[in-house]
Design brief:
The chain is an alpha/beta fold. It is built from six helices and twelve strands. The structure holds glutamine.
């Protein structure tokens, strides 16, 4: 499903946006499969990532939703925390969704006891900002593309965080109920919601376009 307003694509006709790209999905906990299926449907090769070695040679990375405090703990148990920080800080195009956004952030306002983030995206976040699991909702939102167009995307909010503060260089790409739920900064895209659940490929295609740009350099 695409957004209501179509953005002009730079891809030649017949070529899928992910073709020739290998994208990792951090596969410690959470909604890994949905991202993998969406990326594959866009032509990318997908690698499930649990170790630092599996980060090598990737063109892009997705940190999925799930439970951020659990994902955080597992990154340390699996020894992949430092390699993740290193890879993302070195410019790997990375999309963090929901718990993945929390993982990317510089500061968590209300962490679980002992919870750390990777600290690579210059934002602070608040967890569970729209209520609990029972308050989950499907929402259509305007999304600001890198070209400055606004497209409508179909999303799902599941115990979603919000961005409570942004530093310089962080662009707000989406708001819900007045709260920041989407950001972009350099090689990073962070979203509070789950387009992989509704099947809207807009944000994943943006990640793949970014990966293609970085690979072409
Ligand atoms: N509330 C969860 C957390 O704090 C995130 C929920 C999600 O990823 N769907 O990690």
């Amino acid at each position: 499903m695409k957004g209501a307003v179509m953005v002009e694509k730079v891809q030649p006709a017949g070529v899928l946006p992910g073709e020739g790209l290998t994208v990792g999905v951090l596969a410690l906990q959470g909604g890994v499969r949905e991202h993998a299926l969406m990326l594959e449907s866009l032509g990318a090769q997908v690698r499930w990532v649990r170790t630092g070695e599996q980060l090598e040679g990737l063109d892009a990375l997705v940190l999925p939703g799930g439970e951020s405090s659990t994902i955080d703990r597992l990154t340390r148990i699996f020894g992949v925390r430092e390699p993740l920080i290193e890879a993302i800080s070195s410019g790997m195009p990375t999309l963090g969704t929901c718990a993945g956004l929390i993982m990317l952030s510089k500061r968590i306002e209300d962490p679980a006891p002992g919870q750390q983030s990777l600290g690579v995206l210059d934002v602070s976040v608040g967890r569970n900002a729209f209520g609990s699991q029972v308050d989950s909702a499907e929402v259509r939102l305007p999304w600001l593309t890198p070209a400055g167009d606004e497209v409508v995307i179909d999303t799902a909010f599941i115990r979603a965080p919000i961005v409570t503060g942004t530093d310089e260089g962080v662009q707000v790409t989406a708001r819900h109920e007045g709260k920041i739920v989407g950001v972009r900064s350099g090689n990073l895209i962070g979203i509070s919601f789950h387009p992989e659940v509704t099947g809207d490929t807009t944000v994943h295609e943006e990640l793949l376009a970014l990966a293609r740009e970085v690979k072409g350099k």
